[in-house]
Each structure stands twice: as structure tokens, then as C-alpha cells.
Amino acid sequence: MNVILLQAFYYAIVMALSVMFLGFIMKGFLFKFLKVKMSFGKYVLVKLRGITRDFFEVGWIEEGFLVYKSNKEEKRVSLDDNSAFYRGVGVSWIDIDEQKSAICKTDYKAIEGFDSVKYNNLYKRALTRPVIASNKEKIIMTLLVGIAIAIIVLAYMVYTQDANIQAIQSGLNSVLTKMSSSVDRVAI
């Protein structure tokens, strides 16, 4: 029994090494293809057409946008119609011109592009920005700012008056000490 398990272990090592070698030779395409294939339609294989070579990324459709990560940045491209998608090797593909960030039609005409990283950042900022909705909230915020300014002004006034009071108090103390010394002289 141990000899059979040992032989199976050796074959598993050979298979793992051959899959890693194929992944290295295909420059990451194999693992991305398998991820898209195993997703059963959730993901799309994005072929980024560069100047010298094509490379592949895993993308997904989110609210009318094609979203994919390239160079550790999430990119978002607007999808107007589904004519740019095509099927090959059992998965859905879409071609994107890397320089223009534009979707390429199946006849290899590029749609007008834009900066997909900037568009994605603007999209996220627009979704997460705080909004003061009603006039009542705006009035309350204005009153709070006014109260804060009034407190700062009052604190300054109290500080300056405290300095004046300290000066008056030290003056009174000196007058009292002079008076007490003169009263002591008169009493003697």
C-alpha cells in the first residue's frame, strides 16, 4: 500500500511542476483563464492590447461598467452595448486598448477612450461623498460654526480681562502694603 501512495505522490509532484511550468511559459494566462472558466460566467477574460504584446486580466461587470485590475489599480470602463464581447475557449472575452483605455469592437475599431483610473476614482468619490441634504441641516451647521466663533471671541475677552484684573489686583496689593506700612508708622 505504501508503494502505491509513494508512486501517486511522485506523479502529483510531476503534475504540479508541469502546471507551474505552463503557468510560467504562458505568463499568467493559464491561472487567469482557469479562474474565469471556474466562475461560470461571473468573470470575463479581459485582453489588454498593448503596444508590443497582449496580456490578460480578470474582469467583471458591475452596474454597466467593466471593472478589472491592472498594475494593482482598479480600472472602470463604461459599457454601452454588449457587441464587444465574444466567446472563445468556453469563456467570454473583451478586448481593451491599453493606451486609450477603450473597448475594442470585434472588428478591431476602438471606441473613444478615457483615463479609466481617474474615472474609477471619481466614481468612488461621488458614491462616498457626504451630502448635507436639507436646509434645516445647513442652518444647524451654520449656527454651530457661529457658536464656535462666539466661544473663541468670549474666551479671548475673558483672557484679556483676566490680565487686566491681575494688574489691578497687584496694584491694589501694593497700595495696601504701602498703606499698612504708613499706618504702622503713624501708630508707633
Give a written overview of the molecule.
This protein has helices at residues 2-25, 29-38, 116-128, 135-187; strands spanning 43-49, 54-62, 65-70, 73-78, 86-88, 91-97, 102-104. It is built from four helices and seven strands. 53% of the residues lie in helices and 22% in strands. Strands 1, 2, 3, 4, 5, 6 and 7 form a seven-stranded mixed β-sheet that branches. It has two domains: 28-128, no CATH class; 133-179. With 188 residues, the protein is an alpha+beta fold.
| Structural category | alpha+beta
Tally of DSSP helical segments: 4
Strand content: 15-25%
What is the helix content? 40-55%
Q: Main sheet, how many strands, which sense, barrel? A: 7 strands, mixed
What do the pLDDT scores average to? 84
Low-confidence blocks of residues: none
Q: Count the strands?
A: 7
Quick overview of this protein structure:
With 188 residues, the protein is an alpha+beta fold. The protein is built from four helices and seven strands; from the N terminus they run ααβββββββαα.
Topology of this structure?
Layout: H1 2-25, H2 29-38, E1 43-49, E2 54-62, E3 65-70, E4 73-78, E5 86-88, E6 91-97, E7 102-104, H3 116-128, H4 135-187
What labels describe this entry?
188 residues, alpha+beta, seven-stranded mixed β-sheet, elongated
